[in-house]
Amino acid sequence: xxxxxxxxxxxxxxxxxxxxxxxxxxxxxxxxxxxxxxxxxxxxxxxxxxxxxxxxxxxxxxxxxxxxxxxxxxxxxxxxxxxxxxxxxxxxxxxxxxxxxxxxxxxxxxxxxxxxxxxxxxxxxxxxxxxxxxxxxxxxxxxxxxxxxxxxxxxxxxxxxxxxxxxxxxxxxxxxxxxxxxxxxxxxxxxxxxxxxxxxxxxxxxxxxxxxxxxxxxxxxxxxxxxxxxxxxxxxxxxxxxxxxxxxxxxxxxxxxxxxxxxxxxxxxxxxxxxxxxxxxxxxxxxxxxxxxxxxxxxxxxxxxxxxxxxxxxxxxxxxxxxxxxxxxxxxxxxxxxxxxxxxxxxxxxxxxx
Length: 354
Hints:
Layout (H helix, E strand, L loop, with lengths): L2 H18 L19 E5 L39 H9 L5 E2 L13 E3 L17 H13 L5 H4 L2 E5 L4 H8 L7 H21 L4 E5 L8 H4 L9 H24 L5 E4 L1 H9 L1 H4 L15 E3 L17 E3 L16 H9 L1 H7 L4
Parallel strand pairs: 1-3, 1-4, 2-3, 4-5, 5-6
Antiparallel strand pairs: 7-8
Organism: Durio zibethinus
InterPro entries: GDSL (IPR001087), SGNH_hydro_sf (IPR036514), SGNH_plant_lipase-like (IPR035669)
Family: Belongs to the 'GDSL' lipolytic enzyme family.
């Protein structure tokens, strides 16, 4: 990205911000937990929430050493263990919903909801051949039409909607211009808003959508800085996405005269963890270097789980995943997700479920 295009992108961001003003999430008055008891969790989105939908021949999540912490072998999660979905289900007091692809084999678990998330996907088509978010919602609608679920049943359910940046990495991969980035962010949030409204119209009572994490702090971005600092330009664009998302959620709550929609503050939850060493917090683990991943390819073209034509591994693995916030160049470890879940930012977000 040359400096002229960079300055233009930043100008666009601050220009839009000027007209949006400072947005706050609309919060309804806290009611008794007994007023709403979620019985099902439906999950839409990408690898931050996927628990095994991706095809085994395409996804690294089915390769060793993924899953070594939980369940002890690769099982489709993009981590060494549990991911965001598992912690949200635990908060709700229900079992983690099974992946959509296993709905027939594990039909007895459908009463807890379903996970429609596929790693690598976005609101638009991305570089992976997996269902985008619109198609994922189509799956739920078809199950309603087939009477697997009912609208009445969905009124005691929660939806988790994860958007972790695949639309933006696809935009870059397809040589989208720096000048066009702010407008593309607007189109992503607009489509996400359509998806949220549609999930609500199907009958889901509460819908939690994740804010975008600080993409500039993922190891894939911090590697060029020896894992010592974040990419500020990327995080500025993330700020725009999150600001537009907050405005969209506010508008949806006004349009539906409800507090059905709320944002999971993943962005500040990540920062809560990153800053713990400086703040001397002790409520969650402190990671010595939070930007350095546990599992990484030995060179360009290789990633965590890669092997060559002789079956020789082409990645390095840290001695203790619990000591690392990031598992690979994009995804947190189980310990990382536990830390994120335990932060004030995420705990305060989750209170809006009630």
